[in-house]
Amino acid sequence: MYRLLKLSGTPLRKHPRVSFGNFTENGDGVTEKTCMLCKQLNNFSSVGLRNHSTIINPNISLKKVRKRKQTVKKYAELLVVKEKVTDKSSSQHKASIQKLTSSDLKLLASTSLNLSELYKLKELSKSTIIIEQHTYNNLSVIENMPNPGNSAHIDDFTISDFKEENVVVYSIPSNVLSKVNESFTVNDTDTANELPEEGSIASEADLDLGIHSLNTFQPEAGDEQISEVEVKEANEKDVKTPLNQKYKVEIATKTLAAYIERQVEKEANSLNSIKNINVYKALLKAFAHKGDLDKIKEILKIMEEENVELNLQCYVAIFECLGRVNIKNNHLKDIRIFAKNAFHKGITFDKMMNEGSFLNNEREIVLQAMKSCDPSYVPKYDPPRVIYNNTLVNHLNNPEQQMPANIESNGDSMIFNSTEMRELVNRQIEMEKEGYVTVKSIEARDNPSEEILKYRGILDDHYKMWEETALAAFNRDLTALIAQKNVLNLEPYMRCIPVQDYVAIIIDEAKKLAQGSETYSPTVNMLYKDMGTKVYARYKILRKQKTGVLNKIMKVHNKYCEEYATNHSDLDVLPSEDVKINTRQRWQWLEHSTHSKGATLNMDHREWVPTTLQFIGKFMYHIVMHDLKIDVNAMKINNNNKNYLPAFYTIFRTQGRIVKEEVKPHPVLSKLYRASVPDTLTFPTYELPMVCPPVPWIATHTGGYLVSPCDVIRLPSQAILQKRRLARAGSQQLYPSLDALNQLAAVPWKVNKRILDVILEVFNSGGSASLDVPQPSSSLPPPSTPTSDMEKSEKYHLFRQKLQYKRKKAEMYSLWCDCLYRLSLANHFRDEIFWLPHNMDFRGRVYPIPPHLNHLGSDLARSMLVFAESRPLGPNGLDWLKLHLINLTGLKKRDPLSERQFANEIMDLILDSADNPLTGKRWWVDSDEPWQTLACCMEIANVGRDSSGAYSVNLTQSEVPQDVYSAVVALVEKQRAKDAESGLQIAKVLEGFVKRKVIKQTVMTTVYGVTRFGARLQIARQLKDIDDFPKESVWPASSYLTGCTFDSLRSMFTSTREIQDWFTECARLISAVGCKHVEWVTPLGLPIVQPYFRYKQLKTPNDNFPMDKYEKPNVMKQKNAFPPNFIHSLDSSHMMLTSLHCERAGITFVSVHDCYWTHPSTVHIMNKICREQFVALHSQPILEDLSLFLADKYSYDECDFTGDGSVQDLTKKKLNRVLRQLPKTGDFDIRQVLNSVYFFS
């Protein structure tokens, strides 16, 4: 083992390559052939052993030599042939027989010896020499090694350096030799014609090389099956005897041919041909950048052998290489040949220049090669494809979109100007290049105590120590990684960014772990992948800088922001004209204007696989876990002794049948971090709003932040199917969905400073449960401690309370931290305008990318943000504002519109709430949405002083608004009263507690496929929040109400239930019978695939990252999720249609799923658009189109049936029948929505 370890650290490049002809004399006086590597390996055996012992007496450590009893060997005879060639004559003698080990027989099985060679080996055994085999492992590397598939190459292979002996030992079974010896008599003249003449080279026929076809089965000997053998003639001394030159040539050629044969057969049996064009494209790109035309031609030859067709990007790389090496047209012939081949495949010069991916100055180099072939060539760049191809939005196309926009400046607007925009773009790019932003915490104190300052100093000292330790540890582990001799060494991934960036990521991760929860933390696999993703994100930013992509983005985005500032002038009460060119189309035309020079925005980058990200994270987490230390005596008073222990450790948490490994900070580190009360918080740039307008999404890989990576669709790593569907769909099919994201991202925001100040006051005062401001975990009173005189049941009750206390405390701390981040960021941006880039989930639901500061959240989160661009209220704006206020309070939800002028009657309370939110009458506190109510009160106060089921869900006309939740409550209460009269105890307990709030969530999520178990948990949660309800009856009461609610809904919405059942049955049969994932395409063209599959048992580390296209779908999740996911995709389609038409109308629009926002003066415009697009969407044959899509994709053909009446045949026929059997729908006229008063209220 020591020899192996010693060898692994020996640099092979120090030893020069030596041919077989270099011989040395060993210690026994026998000349032998060796190479420098063999000598180095053999010398390791003389290394002295190092004995480790705690015993001082050296005699005890001496190892006693144990004699091993010799056993009789059943097999092995040695055949050695000695050849002596004189004037065309030779002689052979029968060899003496000697027993060998069984391992020597394996060598015979892996070679091709004929009888002639066996006799030659027998003759050699009469020579009194010491013979040492030179194994395959000790062969020197030989340049221009012949191809074993071509026998002519063997003839050309000569070894002219042999001047001494060369002996090879073979071992064969004794029974074979005995038969050979009995059957043949060897004479001197028998082999006269078998050996080559003196001075000639042995041919393949003479040597019987035995090179077989790779397709024939042949047992393969491993390296460990070939061993060195030393044989001595009995009772004779070692004698040095030279060997004949011809024999050396024969044996050497034989050995070499067998080695080549073995290597070729081994590779042919173990490796598959590479057919992936991306592999060759990457190689072509790399060698083209170096201008290595010879390597390019080698790769092309391999591609031709593997029948891999060249694509457009391959030809771009070829012409790049030719452009670099074509000096004075010395490669003009090659350029013309490749141009002819490209044209033959339909790849023209113009197509390469339009669709190719270029970095830095590659476009100019390729163009130079093209002009050398055709001096008159001038590239013609195609205009971008900017129009829609969808029946729902085709009417938005117009001729003005087919040409660049001519923007005439109307003067700088009130909040934007071109100069400020350029400064904001530069600031944003610097933030993203830095990677992190540090903001001041709202918890920061103006005058921290001496104790806090002391703890901060201790923590800072640890951070500095960690940086030094992490730097040294990273270099140490990287050196060890470089020394590894793996086939695929991942060392390049650990060199892709500067070392200081790795260290910064490690320290940032350690700081984040120090803030972790006591009851929950992500698993180590999640942490590994997250850290690897951070490295990958940093790499992509640096790559964009290095390849010139960043310069192109800056150039285009500066022009885009200038146009953005020009188009956003002061807003009037109503928009004056339609906006006919959207943000995506402006960006595409600006990019097209710079298309002829510089890099392309698409880098043609291959994403790092999850296994690589996992490796990077694991490599770095090894440093976090084993090298970062914490002084456990740091918080002890007057203790100068330092005791460093690991700052982090792992625990194993059981979740059902799964045991998960998690990382926890040392208790002293957690305590030190909290005691230091940090005054700053650090966030990654991609988690913050942007200080300039985002890049519009023009494809799935371009949009969002300027250089920070972000995905247009939030997909798990295993969701490969939907990624492929998106790639095949093309950008034009996705334009409606992308444009909706762009419209939402183009809305500027600012912080409502008055609301923020009130929230900060409540938060710093300890929070408020009634106002949904999280309280610190320290405010939770601890449970009482058990005493010795308590009974067992009382102690058990206290034990349960203690568990609930820990769980509640952890939950409070998590909510408190979330609010701390949100408020700190809002305070950081309080005087700035910012933008929120958007993306969507796999169903098409839209979300802001920044997770902490956005309008998608609780009542508190929504109240803090307002539009940065304001509009005058106009004649009806104040009425809409008052109506919105009453809706927020929830006081008049079931009252008709005529009675909702309640705001005028309580104007004094509204003004008091605005002027004295915390010290006045606090009317706003009792609202359903208190913080939004307060914000609305402040708006009304400012303006006031300055001015002084279709029926159940309000699809039809009605005098009063219909509330489906109240209707279900009435049915449930009716059933409860009936059961109570029958004597059901739980029905009696629920008297007076069946309220709208209790069952609202269950009713709302029923259409989304909520199960009975999930509904039971929802109702139980609501009953627990009722103080007067007996806690011991929560579980049976929730079970009873769940059944009543489901029965009531089934009686109210019969057609809806039938449609939902059809969805469920389709998904069940598709996933169970067809064993495929359910997928569909939304009316706006967004392909959707449900990524639910059954996780198999992990066998290898790579199994941590399965891919859905190779896994069996999870039938239960597929069928339960199909109805809600399909409904979500329709809701998202309606929102996107509303967004696109509001943008065309020139009004501001923002949504939180199905909650739409705009200025009060434009509510009536959005109201009209919302209704019209709802009618347009649902006038489409949605169910019919879905049925046709599913039947076309999942149905079985007639050839798939066996016709034997088997269960398999019957289930396939059932699948075909169900997919085409549409459920019955009602006769409701969808156009009645246009006249419904409360459809939008």
From TrEMBL:
Cellular localisation: Mitochondrion
Family: Belongs to the phage and mitochondrial RNA polymerase family.
InterPro entries (UniProt xref): DNA-dir_Rpol_C_phage-type, DNA-dir_Rpol_phage-type, DNA/RNA_pol_sf, PPR_rpt, RNA_POL_N_sf, RPOL_N, TPR-like_helical_dom_sf
EC code(s) of this entry: 2.7.7.6
Region ranges (Disordered): 771-792
Stated name of the protein: DNA-directed RNA polymerase, mitochondrial
UniProt entry keywords in alphabetical sequence: DNA-directed RNA polymerase, Mitochondrion, Nucleotidyltransferase, Transcription, Transferase, Transit peptide
Functional description taken from the UniProt entry: DNA-dependent RNA polymerase catalyzes the transcription of mitochondrial DNA into RNA using the four ribonucleoside triphosphates as substrates. Component of the mitochondrial transcription initiation complex, composed at least of TFB2M, TFAM and POLRMT that is required for basal transcription of mitochondrial DNA. In this complex, TFAM recruits POLRMT to a specific promoter whereas TFB2M induces structural changes in POLRMT to enable promoter opening and trapping of the DNA non-template strand. Has DNA primase activity.
Assigned GO CC terms: mitochondrial DNA-directed RNA polymerase complex
One annotated GO molecular function: mitochondrial promoter sequence-specific DNA binding
Pfam family, one: RPOL_N
Complex formation: Homodimer. Component of the mitochondrial transcription initiation complex, composed at least of TFB2M, TFAM and POLRMT. In this complex TFAM recruits POLRMT to the promoter whereas TFB2M induces structural changes in POLRMT to enable promoter opening and trapping of the DNA non-template strand. Upon metabolic stress, forms a complex composed of FOXO3, SIRT3 and mitochondrial RNA polymerase POLRMT; the complex is recruited to mtDNA in a SIRT3-dependent manner. Also forms a complex composed of FOXO3, SIRT3, TFAM and POLRMT.
GO terms (BP aspect): DNA biosynthetic process; mitochondrial transcription
Ranges of the PPR repeats in the UniProt entry: 276-310
Domain DNA-directed RNA polymerase N-terminal: 426-746
Gene3D superfamilies associated with the record: 1.10.287.280, 5' to 3' exonuclease, C-terminal subdomain, DNA-directed RNA polymerase, N-terminal domain, Tetratricopeptide repeat domain
Reactions it catalyzes: RNA(n) + a ribonucleoside 5'-triphosphate = RNA(n+1) + diphosphate
Top enzyme class: transferase
